[in-house]
Amino acid sequence: MRKKSNIISLIDQNRAMLLVILLTIFSCIFAPNFANRMNFSTILISACMLAIISVGFTIVFILAQIDLSIGATAQFCGMLCVGLQPNLGWGLSLIVAVAAGALIGLFNGIVVVKFRIHSFIATIGTMTIIRGILHLYSDGGTKSIDDYSLGEFLETGQFPIWFIIIVIAAIVAFVVLSKPDIKTINGIATLVVPTVFIVLWLTTKLFSPIVIITFIIISVGIFIVDHTRFGKGFYVVGGNAETAWLAGINKDLYIILGFVICGITASLAGSIFAMRLSSMTARFIFAQKALMTALAAVIIGGTQLTGGKGSILKSYFGVLMFQILFNMIGCFGLGFEIQIFINGLILAVVVFYEAYTNYKHDLLKGQRPELLKEAQSMRL
């Protein structure tokens, strides 16, 4: 009985990864024109924006908060990046856009912490404000430029081989040094996944620059959150605010920083998306789909709505799962409205499941007296 329970728990903890594998196998067998290199590359590229968004979104969730303005932030900052490019160039435009995202996150954090407004309400307000500014800036239309060179490089270009070797060496060294118990399932997965990606890149040139940039951003997020004393404080604050206070951890500072990071990753995602297409639309459906898909992907990845638990890597697999699903739907010739319906259906099922598991988890409260000792080593 106990062995069966452990197997179920293992499946639940790695559900996003398993869903990616199962959907890929199903699509390769049944979906027309799915199993080819170009399509796999398209899936990875289309996942980049949401994957970058999910880095900061996961951190906010770990803090037991939520940021409903991420879609609007990504859209506005992408629009800002494209709009400023003719005068400032891509480099300065990106810096300004990311700074704007950081300020939006700072605003959200201050409103939540200082005014004690629930993040759900606060970020809905921020989303509405951003929508208004976006329409004023773009006249409700689309901003675009005629220079497609950067977008072509991001999608079809290649980094120099020496750069790839350095990135590979850094990722492998990071995994080996940060996983002393490499025999665990998560440890093996963390090592095998980048290794498989590396082999695929070397043999098929599957990974374009935008995908590699996304992997780097995800790796930095994983390192900060899971492998630094500062990053582990996010889990303590989200898991038990009272324990964080007793341990001397600055809860308010962590929450503000969490929203700032979320704003930065959303702005990076929107800006990189705009760079890839050399344009950005003001249509509300863009921000809405980004928010709903990121929300569903992070929850499917195992990040708890109640805080204290989450994984950036698993959130990425959640994003990848949705992109494979949407691509499969396209291969079957089904429309965009089916994508939205399935997205909402999956989100509803996962939220219901999380509510049930959180109810069971509440029955076990008080069974980790060692948490305070853990928290005391993470003061900030």
TrEMBL record:
<protein>
    <submittedName>
        <fullName>Ribose ABC transporter permease</fullName>
    </submittedName>
</protein>
<keyword id="KW-1003">Cell membrane</keyword>
<feature type="transmembrane region" description="Helical">
    <location>
        <begin position="207"/>
        <end position="225"/>
    </location>
</feature>
<feature type="transmembrane region" description="Helical">
    <location>
        <begin position="120"/>
        <end position="138"/>
    </location>
</feature>
<feature type="transmembrane region" description="Helical">
    <location>
        <begin position="158"/>
        <end position="177"/>
    </location>
</feature>
<feature type="transmembrane region" description="Helical">
    <location>
        <begin position="184"/>
        <end position="201"/>
    </location>
</feature>
<feature type="transmembrane region" description="Helical">
    <location>
        <begin position="40"/>
        <end position="63"/>
    </location>
</feature>
<feature type="transmembrane region" description="Helical">
    <location>
        <begin position="341"/>
        <end position="359"/>
    </location>
</feature>
<dbReference type="InterPro" id="IPR001851">
    <property type="entry name" value="ABC_transp_permease"/>
</dbReference>
<keyword id="KW-1133">Transmembrane helix</keyword>
<keyword id="KW-0812">Transmembrane</keyword>
<feature type="transmembrane region" description="Helical">
    <location>
        <begin position="16"/>
        <end position="34"/>
    </location>
</feature>
<dbReference type="GO" id="GO:0022857">
    <property type="term" value="F:transmembrane transporter activity"/>
</dbReference>
<dbReference type="Pfam" id="PF02653">
    <property type="entry name" value="BPD_transp_2"/>
</dbReference>
<dbReference type="GO" id="GO:0005886">
    <property type="term" value="C:plasma membrane"/>
</dbReference>
<feature type="transmembrane region" description="Helical">
    <location>
        <begin position="94"/>
        <end position="113"/>
    </location>
</feature>
<feature type="transmembrane region" description="Helical">
    <location>
        <begin position="253"/>
        <end position="275"/>
    </location>
</feature>
<keyword id="KW-0472">Membrane</keyword>
<feature type="transmembrane region" description="Helical">
    <location>
        <begin position="281"/>
        <end position="303"/>
    </location>
</feature>
